[in-house]
Amino acid sequence: MSGALDLTRFEVLSFDCYGTLIDWEAGIAAVLSPWAAEQGLALDADALLAAYADSEAAMEREQPTARYPDVLAAAFRRTGEALSAPVSDAWAQRLAQSVPDWPAFPDSAGALTRLAGHYRLIIVSNVHRDGFAASNRRLQGDFAAVITAQDVGAYKPADNHFEALEAKLAELGVGREALLHVAQSLFHDHVPARRHGIQSVWINRRHGTDGWGATPAPDGEVGFSAEYRSMAALADAADAAFA
Predict the structure, then answer these.
(1) What is the percentage of the chain residues whose pLDDT exceeds 90?
(2) Residue 198 belongs to a domain
(3) How confident is the model at residue 2 (pLDDT cuts 50, 70, 90)?
């Protein structure tokens, strides 16, 4: 569904990648679930993701300049400690190296192609450069800029990504009012976007599913201008608005 948002007002769309375009929950669960089975833990994928969520967010706060593979490995070990189940170096490295294997949502590549006909696109992601490059082989996105945690030395919901985004807009000669941020995570994206006065739309990938998955619950003021249940729905709305 959409709100009363005029999508023709915007010139640039910025995107969170993991959770919005790439199914990071499926990618993480593909490692956590067989590990849990090996450890005899009677936890389904959603329970494992919920256990993992706070561990990754904590590592990103504590080690903001760590490369994302190192964050993944350390967060996995911390999750194991919380569940009283050991995580070997082999398992930790399996998660650390898994980003290129994480699948794109089926609608992401097509939606990006359609949206690129109306807007310039920017990635604003909590990952390392090589990880996003591997994911973009699945997305085939034509991006005017890519801003990663490795570039800004911090992880969302810290301000660094959004400060870099505003600087990139200035380079492109685009005002903040012409930017719309597109993201699934209320915690990582919509809270800081609101803090920076940036309009956003929520891609509610987990509609109909309980809990927050691999993302912590939002811990600040949340605001978004419209909600869509998929990237395809956003692209449909944009196509209709510009028709």
Answers:
(1) 91
(2) yes
(3) very low
Residue 23 is a catalytic residue:
no
The tokens for 6 are: 């005029």
Q: Catalytic pick from 16, 107, 219, 239? A: 16
Mean pLDDT in the chain? 95
Is the domain of 45 the same as that of 145? no
In the sheet where 200-203 sits, what is the strand order?
145-148, 120-125, 12-15, 179-183, 200-203, 226-228
Cα 15 from chain centroid (whole Å): 8
CA 231/CA 201 separation, integer angstroms:
11
- Write out the DSSP string of 5-42: --GGG-SEEEE--BTTTB-HHHHHHHHHHHHHHHHT--
Q: Is the pTM of this model over 0.85?
A: yes
Q: Are strands 120-125 and 12-15 parallel, antiparallel or unpaired?
A: parallel
For 109-143, what is each residue's pLDDT tens digit? 999 999 999 999 999 999 999 999 999 999 999 99
At 56, the amino acid letter reads E
Task: Read off the CATH number of the domain in which 84 is found.
Answer: 1.10.150.750
Domain count, the chain: 2
Please report how many Cα atoms fall inside a 13 Å half-sphere around the Cα of residue 241, on the Cβ side: 20
pLDDT category at 218 given cuts 50, 70, 90 is confident
Question: Structural domain of residue 73, as residue ranges?
Answer: 25-101
Query: Which of 71, 101, 131 is the last residue in one of the domains?
Result: 101
